[in-house]
Amino acid sequence: QSALTQPASVSGSPGQSITISCTGTSSDVGNYNVVSWYQQHPGKAPKLMIYEVSKRPSGVSNRFSASKSGNTASLTISGLQAEDEANYYCCSYAGNNVWVFGGGTKLTVL
Amino acid sequence: QVQLVQSGAEVKKPGASVKVSCKASGYTFTGYYMHWVRQAPGQGLEWMGWINPNSGGTNYTQKFQGRVTLTRDRSISTAYMEVTRLTSDDTAVYYCARDPGYSILEGHFDLWGRGTLVTVSS
User: Fold this and answer.
1) What is the distance, to the nearest Å, from the Cα of residue A18 to the centroid of all Cα atoms in its chain?
2) Most B CBs within 10 Å: which of A39, A99, A100, as the mutation test of the B interface?
3) Which residues are registered as beta bridge partners of B46?
4) Mean pLDDT over residues B5-34, rounded?
5) Cα(A8)–Cα(A20) distance, rounded to whole angstroms?
6) What is the C-alpha separation between A99 and A72, in angstroms, rounded?
7) Chain B residues with beta carbon closer than 8 angstroms to that of A3
8) Rg of chain A in Å (alpha carbons)
9) Is B45 in Cβ contact with A91 (below 8 Å)?
10) Is the pLDDT of residue A1 over 80?
11) Integer Cα distance of A56 and A27 in angstroms
12) Residue B29, SS3?
């Protein structure tokens, strides 16, 4: 299983919106609605932000939203805040009880 | 308090083995699958495999089959991950992460340990 493809970095100013893409194949992202997104601050464990493509866990800000089209999933963060600066990872079910992560995207809040 | 507490950092020589523990508390350990994920220094997350703490059933990504073994001890609510034949490429932080589906795999990870740094160096 190959890693999902994410942009290495994205940036935005406070208050703006950004979108991070996550491209897989018809064997993973395109075939299952089992895509999740994680936020990871330096030196910390990842935190679940989105599951099952677009669902937000309790306690996660509604500034975080996500969707999927074909083989590409997307995470959108609106109203950027300084605390959103982190690395973001997508993850997809890839069949045969196996999961695969994206390479990660570093979000910089300018 | 619902949490996963992992064992401390390890330093190993190439060719050795390492066993990392992950103790669950605050929930029914046997009800939720446990995944293991690793992260090399400055790199991204890499899914390794899962264990069903109730049955002991496991599954691994192809890359780790034969070299990684996931086990559990239900009596102390602890999951273990052992990696054999270590090389410098195995230097990473290893995380355990709970799948929130009760007795099923929902496919995301809602509770994470703090990670265990394993350093492989001669």
Assistant:
1) 12
2) A99
3) B38
4) 98
5) 10
6) 16
7) 44, 46
8) 13
9) yes
10) no
11) 24
12) helix
**In angstroms, rounded to a whole number, what is the distance separating the alpha carbons of residues B14 and B17?**
8
> Tokens in use for A67?
């969707």
Kindly state the tokens that stand for A53.
């493509």
Residue B66 CB coordination number (10 Å)? 10
Instruction: Give the total residue count for chain A.
Output: 110
At A42-85, the pLDDT tens digits run: 999 999 999 999 999 999 999 999 999 999 999 999 999 999 99
Dump pLDDT digits (tens) for B68-121. Answer: 999 999 999 999 999 999 999 999 999 999 999 888 888 999 999 999 999 999
Map A20-89 to HEC letters: EEEECCCCCCCCCCCEEEEEECCCCCCEEEEECCCECCCCCCCCEEEEEECCEEEEEECCCCHHHCEEEE
Residue corresponding to tokens 């740094």: B117
